[in-house]
Design a protein that fits this description.
five-stranded parallel beta sheet; 22% strand; 47% helix; alpha/beta
């Protein structure tokens, strides 16, 4: 494969009026790895040769044949082409050197010269040109990028007194052309709303002291007299150790929509806050009203119950006198009617006692004395107490509370006894004949759980949520007026007064589990012989 001359790097175009000097230069260049694409003596032909051979560098003599000099030829080339020119001449006076500078040469070699001087001059010129081209390309890319963004991108000296660059986004953000800003940057202060001017000046002076990064929000006055919110962020850039070379990069953005959204949001929050205050006030008024109604309800329950008990006791008293009066010859039908009266009276009296008990618990009138209670002994005594009642119904009552440990709970002994009396009594009452009632305990961290399990009729799932509500009938018998004791609602209230909790699990026609959790005081390990 044949290699053409255009494929070699560092191609050189020689423009020299003396043929022998041109040949000597060509010889030296090729010896040092350069490729000479052409050798001409006329300045008028330089541009054509460049278009034809596309050289990497032009080695130009100032004095040439023809009507134009090397300096004039260089000016023509610079207008049309981006190519480095190195001058090679016998002239070294100050005037010539100044003209060479004006043309923008990348090197200057004085005749006569050494071979090494020529090589170094060409390499340095090419390196300088390559570096500048890369910088120009970066600058071009930067300008293209800055024109695409809507923010105002500004480069200035460290004090913001001299503007080096301002993007097209300046006009979008501030409503003025960037040219006018570059020409007179001090006029920028005239744009700022007077109430924000001092804050902006403080920001500006802080940025000038080399702070790593700052930002400030302020308002500007647009040409139509409307206000716009702007946020400006400044980033000082250290170019080198020379203080006067430091520059700042400033980015300004229009945040008017965001600010308006923030203001609207704040207004909404304030409105919601006002509504919450009014709602809270309304709730407090309602709470006070509810407390008044609850107190009134308690008073009514207590008074009505007492009022009912007086005539009811009279009815029961006279009924019992009639029942014991053997002088009266009662017919069977009369005797049966009297039994119904007495039974209904006792049931009603029992119901009134429940209402009074619940009223006392609900109002907090029951005194509570918390102390350490020996749970094993309390449960054992109650099971012995109810054992005969269970046997009468052919029900087996089993005590599974630990015999290897004594449990002590923090509770009121009298109230706790009443709680378990009610739970054990209910378990026996609602357990089928030949069924089982079990009482067992579990320790969980600082709590003792006592569970009363029965194999009774159970409670429907849809009724479990209301099983502790006062005077609610769950099933056909659960809150029957015949049921003596405080009832589950009062039981729950008593347990909560003693800092405990109660829960229930039940399945219809299978049985129920009522679990009471109480604060644990201590556990004593027993020695078993």
């Amino acid at each position: 494969m044949k290699t053409t001359i255009d494929e070699y790097p560092n191609k050189v175009l020689i423009v020299e009026d003396e043929a022998l000097v041109a040949l000597e230069i060509e010889k030296n260049l090729e010896k040092n790895g350069f490729t000479v694409v052409s050798n001409i003596a006329y300045g008028e032909k330089v541009l054509d040769e460049i278009n034809l051979h596309n050289p990497d560098v032009v080695l130009m003599d100032i004095k040439l044949k023809g009507e134009i000099s090397g300096l004039t030829a260089a000016e023509i080339v610079n207008k049309e082409k981006d190519i480095p020119i190195i001058f090679l001449t016998a002239y070294s006076d100050a005037k010539t050197i100044e003209k060479v500078k004006e043309v923008g040469a990348y090197g200057y070699i004085v005749k006569p010269f050494h071979e090494q001087e020529l090589k170094v001059a060409l390499e340095m010129g090419l390196y300088k040109f390559s570096s500048e081209r890369k910088a120009r390309m970066k600058e071009k890319s930067f300008l293209q990028f800055s024109d695409q963004i809507e923010d105002a991108f500004i480069i200035s000296d460290k004090g913001g007194k001299k503007i080096l660059f301002a993007s097209k986004g300046f006009e979008k953000v501030f409503g003025r052309s960037q040219e006018s800003f570059i020409q007179d940057c001090e006029s920028f202060l005239d744009l700022i709303y007077k109430e924000d001017l001092e804050r902006f000046k403080e920001f500006q002076s802080s940025g000038g002291r080399g702070v790593s990064s700052l930002e400030v929000e302020y308002r500007i006055l647009l040409p139509d007299e409307s206000l716009r919110w702007v946020v400006t962020r400044v980033f000082p850039v250290e170019e080198d150790n020379s203080e006067n070379r430091n520059v700042m990069v400033t980015v300004s953005s229009d945040i008017t929509r965001k600010k308006q959204a923030d203001i609207n949001f704040k207004h909404q929050i304030d409105f919601i806050g006002d509504q919450l205050v009014l709602k809270n006030l309304d709730l407090r008024l309602k709470e006070n009203k509810i407390e008044e109604l609850i107190k009134e309800k308690r008073d009514v329950l207590s008074n009505v119950s007492h009022e009912f008990k007086t005539p009811l006791n009279a009815i029961l008293g006279y009924g019992q006198l009639l029942e014991s009066d053997s002088l009266n010859n009662w017919t069977f039908e009369q005797k049966e009617h009297l039994d119904h009266i007495l039974k209904a009276g006792h049931n009603l009296l029992n119901l009134i006692e429940k209402v009074l008990g619940f009223s006392k618990v609900d109002s907090g009138d029951i005194p509570v004395s918390i102390k350490s209670v020996h749970l094993n002994r309390l449960i054992s005594d109650l099971i012995n107490q109810y054992d005969s009642k269970a046997k009468n119904r052919e029900i087996q009552i089993i005590n599974k509370v630990s015999t290897k440990k004594d449990f002590f709970v923090l509770s009121d002994p009298l109230l706790l006894k009443q709680v378990f009396m009610n739970l054990i009594s209910n378990a026996i009452k609602f357990t089928n004949v030949q069924g089982t009632v079990e009482v067992y305990s579990e320790v969980e961290e600082s709590l003792l759980r006592v569970t009363i399990f029965d194999t009774g009729c159970g409670i429907p799932k849809d009724k479990l949520e209301v099983v502790f509500d006062p005077l609610v009938r769950v099933g056909k018998d659960l809150y029957n007026p015949d049921n003596k004791g405080l009832g589950l609602a009062v039981t729950k209230s008593l347990i909560e007064l003693m800092n405990g909790t109660i829960s229930v699990q039940s399945e219809l026609n299978v049985g129920s589990r009522f679990s009471v959790e109480l604060p644990l005081d201590k556990i004593i390990e027993l020695e078993i012989n």
